[in-house]
Amino acid sequence: LIEYLQALLDVTEGLEDIKLVRSIRAVDELSRPVIVVKTNALQKLAAAPIRNFMGTFTLTLVSQHKDIDKAEDDLEARLEILLPKLFTWGMSWQSADQAQFDERHICYDIAVSSIYKGE
C-alpha cells in the first residue's frame, strides 16, 4: 500500500508535496501536508490464495496550516484530487471525515480498502 500511495503522490499534480508517514506517530512542526497510514484490519479472502487479504486502512490527510480556514480550503482541494485517484490505483474509499489531528492541525480521515498481498 505504501508503495502504491507514494507512486500516486509522486505523479499527481497537486499531491506531489505531501509527505507519506508509514505509521501512526506524533509529528513535529509541519512544513507541508502529510498522509499518515494506519492499518485497521486484514481479512482473509475465501476465494483467494492463502496470503491474500482484504485490508482496511485509514489515510489521515493532515494540513500544515494552523489557520482553520486555510487548512479547510487546502484539504478540500487536495481531497478533490486524491479521492478519484484512489480508484485508479486499486483502492476503494468509503468515507472522508474531517477530524482534529492534534491541538494545532485539522485533518481528514479517509477510510479505504484494498487487496493486500502478503509475502
Report on the structure:
The protein is built from 2 helices and 5 strands. It is α+β, with helices and mostly antiparallel strands. A 5-stranded mixed beta sheet has the order 1-2-3-5-4, covered by helices on one side. A hairpin with a 5-residue loop joins strand 4 and strand 5. The longest helix is centred in the middle third of the chain and has 21 residues, at 68-88.
Q: Main beta sheet: strand number and arrangement?
A: 5 strands, mixed
Low-confidence stretches: none
Strand fraction equals 35-45%
Class based on secondary structure composition and strand pairing? alpha+beta
- State the helicity in percent bands: 25-40%
Categorize the overall geometry. elongated
- Rounded to the nearest angstrom, the distance between the terminal CA atoms is 13 Å
| SSE order | HEEEHEE
Number of helices: 2
**DSSP E strands, number:** 5
Radius of gyration, Cα only, in angstroms?
15 Å
| Strand line-up across the major sheet | 1-2-3-5-4
Mean pLDDT: 88
Task: Spell out the blueprint of helices and strands.
Layout: H1 2-11, E1 19-21, E2 34-44, E3 52-62, H2 68-88, E4 92-100, E5 106-117
Parallel strand pairs: 1-2
Antiparallel strand pairs: 2-3, 3-5, 4-5
